[in-house]
Design a protein that fits this description.
It is a single chain. By secondary structure, the protein is α/β, with parallel strands linked by helices. 35% of the residues lie in helices and 22% in strands. Strands 5-4-3-6-7-10-8 form a seven-stranded mixed sheet, with helices on both faces.
Length: 264
């Protein structure tokens, strides 16, 4: 896999003329152009190779290409979620896990160390291809797959996931505007209703007041219970995730479940 992303240098890609911009139908060429490449990471006793880009690389690429590149980098909230999964790994042993808005897929890949089966999902087809590459590169212990999933209760892509049983739903840094919050929580509720014992763990960095207010209001409207979880503490030894901003305590950890009346 590394060779697929290291054929040419990033600077040479950005210096292409307009006629040499990446083939938009060639996902690998497009990902190379954005700066995505394999990066070595360490999580405790486990070594990973996660293909991703940096903010600097994505900012430079965005000057020449349109599109949403947010799923191509690792955000600090993902670091926190990985720490949480590691600290409470026993809760994930032999469980079925689905990750929403997976981006690079690092959180789902970590969950697959312990879980029986993990499905990582995203609504961006380019990102789904990246997810597949990262699964292939790391060959997690548990079974794992990447699938397209558009959020929202009315989304046709959601239906196949509602025929399955999920013990955990996970997600990191998914609430970036009010519409996304509503669609995310509709999706989470539909998945939670398939298994009254399932739980949704969501790490979130507050950026916009209206987004945070929409989150709490929508949870009330959808009869979802929200619990603030404790910070998982310092990272274990040999912990290196390629997140540019240090994960700090301003990142919140929410545990979301169905209210008792809906879980009966």
């Amino acid at each position: 896999m590394p060779g697929r992303y290291s054929v040419v240098t990033f600077d040479s890609l950005l210096n292409r003329s307009e006629r040499e911009l990446p083939n938009m139908s060639d996902t690998i060429d497009f990902l190379r152009f954005t700066g995505v490449r394999p990066r070595a990471m360490q999580l405790g006793d486990y070594d990973f190779q996660i293909s991703c880009a940096t903010s600097w690389e994505l900012d430079r690429a965005a000057k020449k290409l349109p599109g949403d590149f947010t799923g191509l980098k690792i955000w600090p909230a993902s670091d926190v979620l990985c720490r949480y999964i590691f600290k409470y790994s026993d809760a994930f042993v032999n469980k079925r896990v689905i990750e929403l808005g997976a981006g690079t897929g690092i959180c789902g890949i970590v969950a697959a160390i312990f879980g029986q089966h993990v499905t990582i999902t995203d609504g961006n087809d380019m990102v789904v291809e990246l997810l597949k590459e990262n699964i292939e590169a790391n060959q997690p212990k548990g079974s794992m797959e990447a699938q397209m999933l558009y959020w929202g209760a009315a989304s046709s892509s959601l239906q196949p996931f509602l025929t399955q049983h999920w013990d955990w739903i996970i997600g990191a840094d998914l609430m970036y505007n009010t519409v996304a919050v509503e669609l995310l929580l509709q999706t989470a509720k539909a998945l939670l209703q398939r298994n009254p014992q399932s739980r949704f763990i969501l790490t979130h960095r507050s950026r916009l007041v209206d987004v945070d207010e929409t989150f709490h209001r929508t949870c009330e409207l959808l009869f979802l219970n929200v619990t603030h979880l404790d910070w998982p503490g310092e990272a274990p030894e040999r912990w290196h995730i390629y997140a540019e901003d240090t994960a700090d305590t301003d990142i919140k950890i929410f545990l979301i479940t169905l209210m008792p009346s809906l879980s009966v």
